[in-house]
Amino acid sequence: MAIKKKGPGLKTAKAGMDYSVDGLPPGTLRMDLNTNLLGPNPAITKFLKAGNYETNQYPSPHADTLREALAKEWKIEPGNIVCSNGVDDIINLTIKAFTERGDSVAFPVPSFTMYNFWTKSYGCTPIEVPMLPGFNVDIDGLLEKTNKLMIVARPNNPTGNMMPEEDMCRLIEGTKGYVALDEAYIEYSGGSFMDRLKKYPNLVIYRTFSKAYAIAGMRVGVAIGTDGIKRLMEVKPPFNLNIVSEAAALVALKSKAWLKKTIGIVVRERPKVTKSLSALGFKVYPSVTNFLLCKAPVSSKSICEGLAKRGILIKDFGNVPGLEDHVRITIGAPKHNKVFLDKLKNVLDEKGVKGR
Fold first, then answer.
1. Which residues, in sequence order, are CB contacts of 182 under 8 Å at separation 6+?
2. What is the pTM for the complete model shown?
């Protein structure tokens, strides 16, 4: 993966746009991946510049220092935590631990595509349960289809909404199998089920450092639970989180003021961006995350292509059944959102679309 020094474009060192990743032009505004556009965290930048890493040595087999820090933060035991190479790999370990070839794994759709990917990778059958109107999870449908494992995101990606607490409890209590609860965006919404782990031994919670904590490039994912964690540890290889990633996660965990500040900016900007998009003819769905799902007034593909030519990437969901002409937009700082909205207006003007 080539990383180039900063070039022309939107000048925003604090927003993490000084580098070109995966061959993108320097200055590209990435509003397509739900990462923290207010990053990188200055404390992480300072840590990386120090460069005091014993890279000639293996990391801790199970990221024990990070597990201890997280246990203190969440008031649980280190033995209730598994750390790995991003939540993608946590999903991998979950399906490996709780299923056998030929089993099924149930989850609502639309949701995170990696649930389907890892289910198929282990020779299992993905049972996709369509959401009800308003992107509400079909509780009865999931319970009817679930045997050994279901995976549910709360808040959900890409819809941005939050399943009611009572519905989540119904899912956990109504199945004999394990329930994996993906809380990747919980820092923006609150309402974690972390305090229910003792009550629900069949619950495993996913958390990530890729979103609010702004170290997506470090790939740090975490699973938390009771009975289920023992099974994850049995299938997890040692040394699966590198030295630099573990240390960076420790720095991020201590950066409470910075975390609170960036979350606050997103929460304040969210209704403003919603209002502006609505005025441009978009149908914007309610969100408690750092992104918005919208139905575009014209072809979503044409909007995404028009913005890409102007140096801005947003996510096109036009090829997803039920989400035709929908796009997902990551919320950034006011300066990011202004640039995005100004260029979006230019794209719509080219297509003859006028705001309301």
1. 87, 112, 151, 152, 153, 154, 206
2. 0.91
